[in-house]
Amino acid sequence: MVGERVKKLTKLIFTGLTMALCVVAFSPSVKTEAAMLQESEPNDNPAQANQLPLNMWMKGTVQGNDQDWYQFTISQSGVSQIEIARDAENTYEDYTWAVSLEDANRHQLAYFYTNSKNYKIGLAPGKYYIRLNQSHGYSVAFSYNLKVSHTPSDSWEQERYYGDKSLSNANIVYANKIYTGKLYCRDDVDWYRFKLNGNNKLSLRFTIDDTVSNPEIWRIELIEYNSRKSLGRYDLDTNETLTVDKCSGDLIVKVWSGYGGAIGDIYHLQLATTPIISSSNTNVKPSTSSTKKPATVKKPSVTKITSIKAGKRKATVRWKKASNATGYYVYRATSPRGKYKKVATVTGRTYYTDKKSLKSRKNYYYKVVSIRKSGSKVLKSKASGYKRVKVK
Predict the structure, then answer these.
(1) Which label site among 263, 308, 316, 359 has the fewest CB atoms less than 10 Å from its CB?
(2) Does domain 162-275 have CATH number 2.40.50.100?
């Protein structure tokens, strides 16, 4: 009987060891924890910030109004990715963290709320901080996993505090290569300087990254570096190819946000060039064949006012989007056949709220003209039919 009990006990021990080994072998959380760093408290301010090695996971916990600070260093220009996710111990699926990315001078370069996010941004070499806290000061302790990955690259715009950006420190870039950028706040402006030789005909391709589901407005201006002459300004919310007939020397591309949109959205730029060669050989006879005319820019189509709504000493006019239009002129008169005066230039939308010197209980008449800007020229369509409104 004693022998049978020993056999049973031995079998139970063997079974228990086998199950334990299976858990270690097949549980992903055990494997992850083995390769993960652990947050060290206190780390409630930049002076106490934990060092966060690149490309390694850090496990941390925040509770109530607690803040966790981390610092990391970028030694080579490239693209960084901040990854944050709920730890396996955290079962609160709707819980979110507030995450802030700051440079060495404490300028904020990113701020977002999330419970699981991969945030990409191009960073210049330097020291950076991440501040992480609960989006709501719950008394429960919530655990998270945090990692900053970095890939060296010369094709990403090097993000820095918007107040430090200017034409003088524009990103140096070259033709026939795709470059990627992102506007991190409303005041951010991205500057690119394409290095070119001589006179060139240009074709700049602007594309919106596939991660952007609802594009907003980007504003883009093309500037000849030597003369500082503007070669065209555009409001874009679709993939477009912008052309310049002639640029002497380097090209400056300025990108910023229209109406506060496009913040945090990734875009791409690619420049193609065609050298303009002038012949100095006077012995060459002029061609007797017909000269090919330059391509003409098509005028925008006529728009139509769809509605007009009266408010207290104001009126809101809405119209249809016109094909080939980059903007609209809004005109107003006090009689249907009177003199119409331009009251606004609108880009990036198809409505306008007029608040300019309107009198209560008076009738006003509006027309809209579609426009297309091409370099320094403005092509206009015929005016729409008028619409009347009585202001309240």
Answers:
(1) 359
(2) no
